[in-house]
């Protein structure tokens, strides 16, 4: 079974060779590798700095093809162009600076083989580089309906992790390819992830076989360039368009589902809560007045909604309102919503860490530590837990002050890194 590995590359000379070596070291040997290089204007000629030089040691390998784009497409259009060239039954997208475990392809091909209706198989990842080596996961229910997977996806903030998996090429028609948004690819991986879930079962393999490189703060990368130098108005427009596309895709899929009305409404509230947290992660921690009003109205309606997980959705809304009030320096209000977030869903890691943050600010570090421990019991290796624990230890004087990581991004949205 041949797998096409699509590597979109831009200004990747410093790390591309390591990425390619991790592909060629796969225990699954039947593969094709296409590196699609966007040109870089650094030397005035359009040549992609030293990206092509990094590929020279691999030119003799017949499995590798190098595609040089005549002009820069941007990461989203570059991936879409690669997907249009896929001619094998399965493919995987690998960003130019990340690395695979040698067993990556075999593990996910096996998972797909066991689930004929599955669109994609994906796993957990380790962050490395300018990051503590923490594990990150986005589990989805192994059984149940598509709506169950969508709800789990939304409750976790609609992150894009499934896009890093191994995908059946046959589902591309239903997915519609990789999204191109006209806003430098603002969160399009999350749109693509949801499309994969809607196209068929997304199989989560709880193994950390993917290694995501985190670059030092202040270093311009292709992903950070997407939001660099964009003013608030441009970011809000990108977010608005992102929400509209995600909502349209979700509504279109829900029309074919046989769901009772309360469940449909609950999915809508979960979607709004996820998009509100996306706004806080990508645009501003402070919410516009209309978003605050909508969130408060959602809480009033969720109390009366007779549907499973209504309280879990309410917890996410409280998290968003707590973060908004914290950003406005209303610590009393932020603490109140954080308390309600945990009361609504006592084991949700995001709620626990939101309350832990407010308790630390209120001078209650030991209660904050208890909540961090609860978050880690519920979701081992949860991304924000290690950061929050270190922050508490610094406040207690148990770690050097210079180790303090500062305010953390509680929402599980990996694309900001």
**Helix/strand order:** EHEHEHEEHEEHEHHEHHHHHHHHH
Which term fits the overall shape?
globular
What Rg, in angstroms, do the CA atoms define?
A: 22 Å
What is the number of E strands?
Answer: 9
How many distinct folded domains? 2
Summed over residues and divided by their number, the pLDDT gives a mean of: 91
Distance between the terminal alpha carbons, to the nearest Å? Answer: 34 Å
Q: Can you say what the CATH homologous superfamily of the largest domain is?
A: Spore Coat Polysaccharide Biosynthesis Protein SpsA, Chain A
The CATH topology label of the largest domain is Spore Coat Polysaccharide Biosynthesis Protein SpsA, Chain A
Q: According to CATH, what is the class of the largest domain?
A: Alpha Beta
Poorly predicted parts: 403-417
CATH-scheme architecture of the largest domain:
Alpha-Beta Complex
Q: Decide which structural class fits the backbone.
A: alpha/beta
Largest sheet: 9 strands, mixed
Helical residue percent band: 40-55%
By DSSP (H or I, 4+ residues per run), the number of helices equals 16
Strand content: 5-15%
Can you walk me through this structure?
The chain is α/β, with parallel strands linked by helices and 417 residues long. It folds into two domains: 3-225, Alpha-Beta Complex (Spore Coat Polysaccharide Biosynthesis Protein SpsA, Chain A); 232-398, Serine Threonine Protein Phosphatase 5, Tetratricopeptide repeat, CATH 1.25.40.10. It is built from 16 helices and nine strands. Strands 1, 2, 3, 4, 5, 6, 7, 8 and 9 form a nine-stranded mixed beta sheet that branches. Helix 9 packs antiparallel against helix 10 and helix 13 packs antiparallel against helix 14 (349-361). The longest helix is centred in the middle third of the chain and has 23 residues, at 232-254.
